[in-house]
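Support case: user asked for a sample of complex input and structure output to validate their parser. Sending the pair below.
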Amino acid sequence: MHFLAAGPVGEVIPGLLSLGQLLASLVIIYIASKVGGELALRLKQPTVLGELVAGLAVGVSGLRWIDPSQPVLLLLAQVGVTLLLFEIGLESDLRGLLKVGKQSLAVGLVGMVVPFGLGYLVMQSVGTTSLVAIFVGAAMTATSIGITAKVLSDLGYLTRDEGKIILGAAVLDDILGVVVLSVVSSIAGGASLELGSVLWIVGTSLGFLIGAIVLGNLALPLFLRVVLILRTRGELLTAALIFAFALAYLAEQLGSAAIIGAFAAGLVLAESDRRHDIEKQLRPVTDFFLPIFFITVGAGVDLALLQNPQALGLALALTVAAVVGKLFCGYAAVGTRANRLAIGAGMVPRGEVGLVFASVGLTSGVLNGVNHTALIIMVLLTTFLGPLLLNWILKKEPA
Amino acid sequence: MHFLAAGPVGEVIPGLLSLGQLLASLVIIYIASKVGGELALRLKQPTVLGELVAGLAVGVSGLRWIDPSQPVLLLLAQVGVTLLLFEIGLESDLRGLLKVGKQSLAVGLVGMVVPFGLGYLVMQSVGTTSLVAIFVGAAMTATSIGITAKVLSDLGYLTRDEGKIILGAAVLDDILGVVVLSVVSSIAGGASLELGSVLWIVGTSLGFLIGAIVLGNLALPLFLRVVLILRTRGELLTAALIFAFALAYLAEQLGSAAIIGAFAAGLVLAESDRRHDIEKQLRPVTDFFLPIFFITVGAGVDLALLQNPQALGLALALTVAAVVGKLFCGYAAVGTRANRLAIGAGMVPRGEVGLVFASVGLTSGVLNGVNHTALIIMVLLTTFLGPLLLNWILKKEPA
């Protein structure tokens, strides 16, 4: 809070930024985000990785220009994640998953179960509670559809068998991932660990997701008719935001997570012929909010915790479990001539989805600083190693 | 706070919204904004008018679903105004003003001086302090370039002499308006009313504006070269936001207003060949934030204050002064065969610029509820009467 505290405070409520402080924070966040992202791109790495490292540089482990516990920044970061999940939903394709079929399903499921089990075992071996072990295991199940799709596209593999299977499995992991996050969030929020209650949350989350998609699809023609009637500026984007935020709010009120609602809204609107128009107008808004998320997440990593040999060891053990677990799942793709090790490598990056888990774990109080930092390092390393491995396996330089 | 208070509060800091509460507020704001805007359009009125009335309906004088004093909403509304002024700057053209020449200059200046004088006299006649009279007079000088340009375009008058002169004068009023706002804000913030201090603020504001434009133009080639180097997503918008927010922050730190910096940034970037690309990507972001401003402003209007005959009388007296003052300025356009009454009518809408004045006046404590409400009603009525008058004078139905 170093830099920001230098700004005018005036009549501002404690914990709330003034306009000047917010603008200064945004300038720092955008510059860090671009410097980090562009450097990563030049080093042929995912831009998310660069943004996280840049966040680290301006956060508690570096210059301390961004306070990652600032409530307004955290709120805007949450809006960013909600918009990201809405956009991922818009880019997802339920029918695409059905077409790539059995292989994607097998890779996706094995790619969740095995990393969950390995993560759970690692945490149990260091003597944490079951709740922490479940949370960390759940965070290991994530696959970053954004990073994975970007890497495949950079390598020119999006239209090949490996690419299709990875994308299908990543879509499945995305859908199940938000359900898993909802389950562990509810558990972390105090819900009992009894099987009945877990099944209830799974049922609610899946029920909400399916219900929202079914009802949303029924409401879609009405939505499109209303949009056609509207003639004021920004009519399509505003209508899409109403749709997404209303579902996100409803999901949260029903005990699920806001991001599930936003994701469901995206999946529904992905079926409309205005999908690409919505995506195009949504992108600048996501570009406004999302860097706040990546930078504040990076800014929250406290590297001093790694002086603790236990935290460093844990981070490395989790990373090995995370990589091995996902590499293994490639071999679930039976009945294809695609390179199965490459499929596994494509599933390795945890990216933004893993970060959502880590951040929910920290704010809900389930994860302590050591566990949270180990998880973030695991996300950083898998996000870094995934493209490296994929590139190495396919023996081809990224375009 | 009725509706919002029903949401989950949890570990949220007092005064700060939870994600669910923010999403619910945004849904209400967007629905109100669209319903109001679309109804206004159908009634052939400016959409801003409809949004204000809709804000009134969901605010303290109506359903009380939106709390206009919620700090996070106010902060996001301020971001919206900053983005609006950036966009207005991008749409403005300094050279365009120079071309339409003397007439625009005369109309613009007379259109500021006469309404200021009339507003000052009205307030003095009801016995307010000089500070309040100056503030209200200053609010009367505004011209809404957005509403005016939209109305002219709707009537097909943008390319005719009347349209060019009005636009030029409105651009001038926009530039001088933010300087005037900066002056009265500083005075309201406790700066002395002595001539020396007023001149100092005028000098600082004008100096900053000119300096920012000159230095900005020098930095423009560098900015464009940096943007060309960037290859990550959203590179143009993020770079433009860094430019705008940095200038806005700088303006505020130098004792001027954030909106002056944003406006200067827009004027500078308007000179670049990427102007239209920036505008296109900025629009969805403005569309996200700006309704928060219009709806919270409308929501803050307390109609109960009009039961006070003094407030109602004041609102009507200010409206007459505002309309007469601007109609008069059309006659300053000597040496043209354009319809001078139409030019004056085109200058009548105060719109968003007038609302910024009213809102600064309220938050700085200069305006009490009665004066603030009278000013808002004046803005509403002029925004409503301007297009009506223009239409009536040009004896032509809006397209």
